[in-house]
């Protein structure tokens, strides 16, 4: 199984308001990548499982209309590691040969063909970890083979999966993004 965990629970502290609800190219920021992941889930429901981790009513309401799981993060102050654990727990039993992809809701510029290409080439790489990158700079989404789930579950504080990536660099497959924009996560209004 290929699990996709969509992280949409950040505090947006540098943005000044809930950036995930801000309009980007005519629709809320959080919907851009989520809509692509939803298409993947709908087209191959036996292959993909999609879980959204959020702290926001608006995102939960949007997700309720879709064939995906939603998990509420009531403790944003515990950092990114808490959202990762909630997402993994919602997936249930993850086998050694399953895959888990983490995507973040503040990356609205990833294109559908780029994401499909990344997943396809990662599977062909036979590596345990894969990340979208641009000119050697690794970013999100990140895919982990099931064997790395215990390490992800052991993370604490505001630490994401990059800590596990850095511990296993020889296991990392990097897929070159179409542009630097694809990796851009929006942290301030000026970055839109």
Note down, in words, how this protein is organized.
The protein has 192 residues and is α/β, with parallel strands linked by helices. Helices cover 32% and strands 25% of the residues. It contains 7 helices and 9 strands. The protein has helices spanning 31-43, 57-64, 80-91, 112-125, 149-153, 162-167, 180-183; strands spanning 2-8, 23-24, 27-28, 48-54, 69-72, 99-104, 129-134, 137-145, 172-176. The strands form 2 sheets. Strands 5-4-1-6-8-7-9 form a 7-stranded mixed sheet, sandwiched between helices. The protein has a two-stranded antiparallel ribbon with strand order 2-3. The longest helix is centred in the middle third of the chain and has 14 residues, at 112-125. The protein is globular. The N and C termini lie far apart (34 Å). Mean pLDDT is 90; it is low at 188-192.
Short description:
The chain is of the alpha/beta class and 192 residues long. The chain has seven helices and nine strands, in the order βββαβαβαβαββααβα.
Query: In whole angstroms, how far apart are the ends?
Result: 34 Å
**Strand residue percentage:** 25-35%
The average pLDDT value, as a whole number, equals: 90
Radius of gyration based on Cα positions: 15 Å
Largest sheet: 7 strands, mixed
Overall structural class, as computed from helix and strand content, comes to alpha/beta
Please bin the fraction of helical residues: 25-40%
Low-confidence stretches: 188-192
What count of helical segments does DSSP give?
7
Would you list the SSEs in sequence order as H and E?
EEEHEHEHEHEEHHEH
**Number of separate strands:** 9
Shape: globular
Spatial arrangement of strands, main beta sheet: 5-4-1-6-8-7-9
